Amino acid sequence: MKQFVLATIVAGAIALPAAAADYKIMAPAAPGGGWDQTARSMQTALQDEKISASVQVNNVPGAGGTIGLAQFVNQANGDPAQLIVGGYVMVGAILTNASPVTLDQVTPIARLTGEYEALVVPAASDIKDMAGLVAKLKADPGAVSWGGGSAGGTDHITAGLIAKAVGVDPTKVNYIAYSGGGEALAAILGGQVTVGISGYGEFAEQIKAGTLRIIGISSDAKVEGIDAPTFKEGGVDVSIQNWRMVAAAPGISAEQKAAVLADVDKMVTSASWTKILADKGWANTYLAGDEFAAQLKKDTESTAAILKDIGLVK
């Protein structure tokens, strides 16, 4: 009888569905920026779709995400419930900051989104278009201050590429780095910098409200829903797309990695996530598992070459 009861309990336990994971997602930047938005969008989708019962987001800003990355690697080892968001900006920041901790030390899960860079100016600015910006840049590169994200990140790289494309020494670019989108936005709106540069989603509300004017977008062709010329249409032969990703902790097992991948896959195919992408103007660039890990390695190599070319690393 005891054996029968024990067997029944075991069988019942096996039949129960697995409990939804409780995740902790680190956004290695201040509130308001792209990584913070990505982490909180994941939080919303995972919970709304009941993929996870509870998702917490914590912010650890500084040095293009490398401070948060170091903390994550040191404290999350072996814990499959801990995730970190990052992206192209972090790839560059690791190189420019000579970070001792790299993305080789985490478990890549997936590239989630892509977003084009937007150039904006305050509504009262005398810069009306790309031509106006280029004229000022050529006349006195140091007098044009660029407000954007971390040094060596996508925003900084884009500014350097624009300068190089119009014949200005990219090392002369007066770039002011901010640790989060909220800080950068305040500086741009307050006229503390000449031009703002970041992902379109970080400026979308202000563009719609008319407090910021968009003068260019970094796509190859016009983007549906964004009323702005491309850099190329404005006479600057530059195109670039930022991307954002999620990674898991180092030291997790293959089975744990597969479980995280399954949850992320459910999230990116959900109605909640689809709506978030549409609302924020993010492109779905989902690439998961080993394919993403291979692409991440290629992107790291190509970013190193770009940073050397525009004088941000030796």
From TrEMBL:
Identify the keywords attached in UniProt to this record, alphabetized: Signal
Per the UniProt record, one Pfam family is TctC
What superkingdom heads the lineage? Bacteria
What residue stretch is flagged as signal peptide?
1-20
Task: Name the Gene3D superfamilies for this protein.
Answer: Bordetella uptake gene, domain 1, Periplasmic binding protein-like II
Q: Which InterPro entries did the record assign?
A: BUG, Bug_dom1
> What is stated as this protein's family in its record?
Belongs to the UPF0065 (bug) family.
The protein's name in its UniProt record: Putative tricarboxylic transport membrane protein
Question: Where does this protein come from, organism-wise?
Answer: Aminobacter aganoensis
Taxon lineage: Bacteria, Pseudomonadati, Pseudomonadota, Alphaproteobacteria, Hyphomicrobiales
